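Final report, closing paragraph on structural work. Over the funding period we assembled a curated collection of sequence-structure pairs, and we close with a single example.
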Amino acid sequence: MTGYRTDLAMERTIRPGGIGPGVQVDTQHQGDMETTWVRIMTDDAAQRLGKAQGVYWTLTHPRLPSLLPEERMAIAKEISQMLRLLLPPQGDILVLGLGNRHMTADALGDRVVSGVLVTRHLQEKNMRGVCAMAPGVLGITGVETAELALGMTEKIKPAAVLVIDALAAMEMNHICTTVQVTDTGIRPGSGVGNHRQGIDKEWLHVPVIAMGIPMVVYASTIVRDALRRILSYDNSEEAAERMAEELAGNSAGDLVVTPRNIDELVQGLADMLALAVNAALQPDMSLEELSHYLH
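Its predicted structure, as stored:
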């Protein structure tokens, strides 16, 4: 169903049948910040949720786009610790920023890569080797992103690949407020129904960590949430889902919506993720030092 399209594993778990055999969900709160671990441990659970087996970690903060610089730095530190936990402790890292740089809502990966501190060419003993690239999209390059990723990985031979992309959410309150990190890789475009070859360990033969922030939501999701508030009888959720599907069943079913100030939001969030990546890959440097490399 259209309303179920999402890249966030935690949103899958809140749907009927989401939490069950083979799925473990742990949530913690620290002030306004919420962190959730979703572990998908069996093939049956993966098929039921439509997500690959592995670990999905999400950090949600309702004021994430408007946090003060010092608050955003604290969030970047939390993300960097998670990245450091999933990435191998040694070896070069290839950072790939996915998406279309000409579409602001899809430009997160490109913007993050522009702030990543690249060091592979420096051969410094106290700095980890990092290379970064934004390969573009099939419609511009004529080459599948997964094919480009495979070619670069075979040539560079990194210890792991870190992929960054804009995501799609199923809940409006997760737009630009949630960061997801997973060790399962990524399938570009899956959240908006545009399935491409996955970029994962099976494809690249090295660990693939994926990170992203939801930037868009389906129009049918907005309709569904509005209907939920309007309908007051016992089966309101089921009725809202059914009516949303009917209203969005034609061309509207493919419409996705993004905040009107997306330009400002993307740049601020991209800077935060770039700082988190740099902190994870260069632990000998402080966040204050690394923040100077963002632009």
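The first helix runs from residue 9 to 13. The chain has a mean pLDDT of 87. We thank the funder for supporting this effort.
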